[in-house]
Design a protein that fits this description.
- By secondary structure, the protein is α/β, with parallel strands linked by helices.
- The chain has one domain: 3-Layer(aba) Sandwich (Rossmann fold).
- The chain contains five helices and seven strands.
- It has a seven-stranded mixed sheet, sandwiched between helices.
- The chain starts with 5 loop residues before the first strand and ends in a 28-residue tail after the last strand.
Length: about 170
């Protein structure tokens, strides 16, 4: 059983839900998912919890806790927005690791609404970083996208000069 407490932003999407299941299978037993459900679905976490034999208990309109009497598991889903720095900071308190997946990821939407895209992806990420600093997070993992490098010849490496083609990639 891993003792580190993991806080995942954007954890109800495809990547986040699969990551959550992976972490649980690898022995992490204390995971909080913080997501506004704009792209992901609560049902993804419900499905994982059901597969693991967990029962869900709604603590408030924004918080669901999943428990399993046969194994020590504390899986919590908080419906919250990374743009709400105060609540984000409060919910992150007591965790060791942050995995930041929350973002607007649709390229066309980033072209149509660049300000909204910037707000969520830049200011939201700043809020997650600031909450991590305030809560003395030991490890911070950030998932990015190949949209940062634009159209370049493979193989792509982190040493390449960014050439984004959209606000999302920027």
């Amino acid at each position: 059983m891993k003792k580190e407490r993991v806080f995942i932003t954007g954890g109800t999407g495809f990547v986040g839900a699969n990551l959550t299941e992976y972490l649980i299978k690898r022995g992490f037993s204390d995971i909080k998912i913080y997501d506004n459900l704009s792209a992901g679905k609560k049902e993804h976490i419900d499905k994982i919890a059901k597969k693991l034999g967990c029962k869900s208990e709604r603590k408030s309109k924004n918080k669901t806790v999943y428990k399993n009497s046969n194994r020590p598991l504390n899986l919590v889903l908080v419906v919250g927005d990374i743009l709400d720095a105060k609540i984000l900071n409060k919910e992150m308190n007591g965790y060791d690791v942050v995995i930041h997946l929350a973002a607007h990821t649709r390229v066309l939407e980033s072209l149509k609404e660049p300000e909204e895209n910037f707000k969520v992806n830049a200011i939201g990420t700043f809020n997650v970083l600031e909450a991590s600093r305030k809560n003395k997070i030991k490890k911070f993992i950030f998932a990015s996208s190949n949209a940062v490098v634009g159209e370049q010849i493979s193989p792509i490496s982190e040493k390449m000069v960014p050439k984004p083609l959209s606000p999302y990639g920027a």
